[in-house]
């Protein structure tokens, strides 16, 4: 099997909420369906999450007009409550998410391996838009 060096992309957001709430909203399927999309013309009609090492997760992301949808999923490789999540996507790319408590705020940093189809800028923008949507949802609920 060929090992490919992939570009790592990092995005981040500081959420005005304690780490316990941020963790719950980031990982609870009942919350994921409310934020796991990059723009208002998309939505996440379904999410499952077995948050443990070797557990699987899947989120369906779909255009609201029904023209396109895909499942975003993978398997967890590390989980440290309120601190760290690492997983491998279905295509083999790796993702690391850290949660740093800063009192009543939480810094969320995601580093993911880029795929080969879309530009680095497009991938960074899409993932950042989803994280920004998560921040907005968590801060207003």
From TrEMBL:
InterPro entries: ASHA1/2-like_C, START-like_dom_sf. It comes from the Bacteria. Pfam families: AHSA1. Signal peptide: none annotated. Residues 16-138 form the Activator of Hsp90 ATPase homologue 1/2-like C-terminal domain. Belongs to the AHA1 family. This is Polyketide cyclase. It comes from Paraflavitalea soli.
């Amino acid at each position: 099997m060929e090992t490919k060096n992939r570009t790592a992309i990092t995005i981040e957001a500081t959420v005005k909420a304690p780490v316990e709430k941020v963790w719950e909203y980031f990982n609870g399927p009942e919350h994921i369906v409310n934020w796991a999309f990059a723009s208002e013309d998309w939505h996440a009609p379904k999410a499952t999450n077995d948050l443990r090492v070797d557990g699987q997760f899947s989120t369906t992301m779909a255009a609201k007009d029904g023209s396109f949808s895909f499942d975003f999923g993978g398997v967890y490789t590390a989980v440290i409550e309120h601190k760290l999540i690492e997983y491998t996507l279905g295509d083999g790319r790796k993702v690391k998410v850290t949660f740093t408590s800063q009192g009543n705020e939480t810094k969320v940093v995601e580093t993911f391996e880029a795929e080969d189809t879309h530009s680095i800028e497009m991938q960074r923008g899409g993932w950042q838009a989803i994280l920004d949507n998560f921040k907005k949802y968590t801060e207003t609920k």
